[in-house]
C-alpha cells in the first residue's frame, strides 16, 4: 500500500483531496454548531434593542389602556413576548416574566442593556438549556408622568434546539460528508491525473525508443501543451533515429567494404609475392648454376633460353599487374567508338597458330558491324584472355565458338569452348585474383590466375560485366558492354 501510494499520482491526489474535503466539511459543521448560538444572540440582541427603543418611543404616544394592540402587533411581528412594569415592579401590561420559562425548563436570565434594576436574576439548575435575554427600555405614557419599563424577552431556546438537532444527526452528516468527499476526490483525481498518467506511459515508451505512440491530447492548457510537445519530440526523435540508423548502416557497410578491400589487398600482395617468388628463384638458380658451370648448367644456351622464358612470364605478370593497378586506381579511359567485329577478327589472327597446334577450330558468327564505346587496347586484352583460356583449358580437336550480338541495351560477346567443364563450387571464385582451379598452381596447367580478374575489371570500367557458366557444349564466357548507336569513327 505504501509503495502504491509513493508510485501513484492518482492515489496521492485522491487521498489529499479526500482528506481536505473531509476536514473542511467537518470544520464547517463544527464552527456552525459552535457559532450559531453566539451569532444568533448577537444579531437578535442588536435588532431587538433597536426595535425595543423604537417601541418605547411609540408607547409614549399611547395610554396604558390603549397600548394593547401595539404590543400584540410587536409580539406577532418579531415573535418575542413583551412586558410593561411600573416603577414598583408590578406588571401592568403584556406577559408576566414568571411565565416566560415553562415549568421544568432550566434557563439563564441576562438583562441587556441594564438601564434599570429590572429583572436579572438567574434560574438555578445543573445545566442551563438556553438563555433568556431581557432587553429593558424606560418610557412614560402620554397621560402620566410615571416612569414605566418596557421589557422585551428574547430566548436562545430555538437555536439551541437546532444545535441539538445537528448533534443528533452528525453520524448521517459525517457519512454524507465522507461519501461526497470520496466521490468528488475520485472524479477530481481522475480528471487531473488521467492525462498525466497517459503522458507518463507515453514517456516510458519513448524512453524505450518506441516512437509509434502519440498523446493526441486536445486540451489547451499546460497539460495539452506538454502532450503536443511530447508528440513533436517523438516525431523528431523518430526522424533522427531513422537518419542515425541509416547513417550507421552506411557506416557499417563502408567499414565492411574497407575491411574487405584491406583483406583483398593483403591477399593480392600475398599472391603477387608468391607468383613472383617462384620464377625469381628459378632464374637465380639457373643463372647461378651457369655461372658456376655445375652439372647440367654447363649447357648455357639451353638454360639461358629457359631463363628467358621465365623472364617473359614474369614480364607478362608485371604487365597484368600494371593493367590491374590502372583499373583499380580509376584512371580515366580513352573511350572511343569501337567496331567490335573488326576488333574480334584482329584478335583471332593472333591465336591462329595456337588453334592449329591443338587442332582446334574457331567458329565465328559476327554481324557486319557492331559498335560500343571503349578503349580498344583494353577490350582486345579482355577478349584475348577469354580466347587464351578457351584454347588452353580445352582438349584437342574441338570447336571454339566466337559470337557477337546486339541487344536492346547491351552488346554481348561470347566465347564458348567444347569439351570443358567447371565444377559448380568453383564458379563463384573464377573472378578472384590469382584464383586457379588447379591447387598445384603449376605453370603447365594454367597462367597467373589474373586473366579472368582482369577481364572483369575491364568490363566493369566500360560499364559492363563478365559472366561464365557451364553450357550444353562446354563452358561459355560472355562480356556485356553498353550498346552504342554510333556506326562510324
Radius of gyration: 61 Å
Run of helices and strands: HHHEEEEEHHHHEHHEEHEEHEE
Strand order of the largest sheet: 2-1-5-4-3
The N- and C-terminal alpha carbons lie at a distance of: 93 Å
- Helix percentage range: 40-55%
- The oligomeric state is single chain
Strand content: 15-25%
Q: Briefly note the structural class of the backbone.
A: alpha+beta
Task: Enumerate the spans where pLDDT stays under 50 for 5 or more consecutive residues.
Answer: 114-126
Care to describe what's here?
The chain is built from eleven helices and twelve strands. With 489 residues, it is an alpha+beta fold. The longest helix has 71 residues, at 222-292.
Please describe the topology of this protein.
Layout lengths: L1 H6 L1 H51 L8 H11 L3 E4 L5 E4 L12 E5 L18 E10 L8 E8 L1 H12 L1 H38 L14 H71 L7 H29 L7 E4 H10 L2 H6 L3 E5 L5 E4 L1 H17 L6 E8 L3 E9 L32 H11 L3 E6 L3 E9 L7
Parallel strand pairs: 3-4, 7-9
Antiparallel strand pairs: 1-2, 1-5, 4-5, 6-8, 9-10, 10-12, 11-12
Helix pairs in contact: 2-4, 2-5, 5-6, 6-7, 7-11, 8-10, 10-11
Amino acid at each position: 500500500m505504501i509503495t502504491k501510494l509513493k508510485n501513484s499520482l492518482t492515489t496521492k491526489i485522491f487521498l489529499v483531496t479526500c482528506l481536505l474535503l473531509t476536514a473542511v466539511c467537518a470544520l464547517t459543521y463544527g464552527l456552525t454548531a459552535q457559532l450559531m448560538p453566539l451569532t444568533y444572540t448577537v444579531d437578535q440582541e442588536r435588532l431587538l434593542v433597536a426595535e425595543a427603543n423604537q417601541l418605547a418611543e411609540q408607547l409614549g404616544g399611547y395610554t396604558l389602556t390603549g397600548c394593547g394592540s401595539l404590543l400584540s402587533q410587536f409580539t406577532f411581528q418579531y415573535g418575542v413576548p413583551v412586558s410593561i412594569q411600573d416603577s414598583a415592579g408590578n406588571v401592568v401590561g403584556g406577559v408576566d416574566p414568571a411565565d416566560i420559562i415553562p415549568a421544568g425548563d432550566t434557563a439563564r436570565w441576562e438583562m441587556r442593556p441594564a438601564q434599570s434594576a429590572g429583572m436579572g436574576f438567574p434560574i438555578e439548575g445543573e445545566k442551563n438549556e438556553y438563555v433568556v435575554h431581557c432587553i429593558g427600555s424606560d418610557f412614560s405614557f402620554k397621560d402620566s408622568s410615571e416612569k414605566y419599563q418596557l421589557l422585551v424577552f428574547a430566548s436562545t431556546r430555538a437555536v439551541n434546539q437546532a444545535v441539538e438537532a445537528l448533534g443528533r444527526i452528525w453520524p448521517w452528516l459525517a457519512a454524507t460528508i465522507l461519501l461526497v468527499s470520496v466521490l468528488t476526490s475520485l472524479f477530481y483525481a481522475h480528471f487531473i491525473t488521467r492525462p498525466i498518467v497517459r503522458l507518463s506511459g507515453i514517456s516510458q515508451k519513448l524512453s524505450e525508443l518506441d516512437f509509434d505512440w502519440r498523446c493526441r491530447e486536445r486540451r489547451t492548457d499546460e497539460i495539452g501543451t506538454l502532450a503536443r510537445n511530447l508528440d513533436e519530440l517523438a516525431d523528431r526523435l523518430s526522424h533522427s533515429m531513422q537518419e542515425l540508423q541509416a547513417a550507421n548502416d552506411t557506416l557499417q557497410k563502408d567499414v565492411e567494404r574497407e575491411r574487405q578491400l584491406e583483406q583483398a589487398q593483403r591477399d593480392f600482395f600475398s599472391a603477387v609475392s608468391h607468383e613472383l617468388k617462384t620464377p625469381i628463384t628459378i632464374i637465380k638458380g639457373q643463372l647461378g648454376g651457369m655461372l658456376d658451370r655445375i652439372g647440367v648448367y654447363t649447357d648455357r644456351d639451353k638454360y639461358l633460353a629457359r631463363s628467358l622464358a621465365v623472364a617473359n612470364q614474369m614480364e607478362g605478370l608485371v604487365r597484368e599487374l600494371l593493367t590491374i593497378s590502372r583499373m583499380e586506381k580509376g584512371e580515366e579511359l580513352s573511350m572511343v567508338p569501337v567496331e567490335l567485329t573488326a576488333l574480334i577478327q584482329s584478335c583471332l589472327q593472333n591465336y591462329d597458330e595456337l588453334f592449329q597446334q591443338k587442332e582446334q577450330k574457331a567458329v565465328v558468327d559476327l554481324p557486319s558491324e557492331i559498335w560500343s564505346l571503349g578503349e580498344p587496347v583494353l577490350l582486345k586484352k579482355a577478349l584475348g584472355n577469354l580466347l587464351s583460356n578457351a584454347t588452353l583449358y580445352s582438349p584437342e580437336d574441338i570447336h571454339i565458338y566466337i559470337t557477337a550480338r546486339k541487344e536492346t541495351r547491351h552488346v554481348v560477346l561470347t566465347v564458348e569452348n567444347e569439351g570443358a567443364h567447371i565444377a559448380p563450387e568453383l564458379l563463384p571464385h573464377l573472378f578472384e585474383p590469382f584464383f586457379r582451379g588447379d591447387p598445384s598452381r603449376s605453370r603447365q596447367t594454367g597462367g597467373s590466375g589474373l586473366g579472368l580478374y582482369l577481364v572483369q575489371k575491364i568490363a566493369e570500367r566500360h560499364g559492363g560485366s563478365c559472366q561464365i557458366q557451364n553450357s550444353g557444349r562446354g563452358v561459355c564466357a560472355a562480356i556485356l558492354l553498353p550498346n552504342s548507336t554510333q556506326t562510324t569513327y
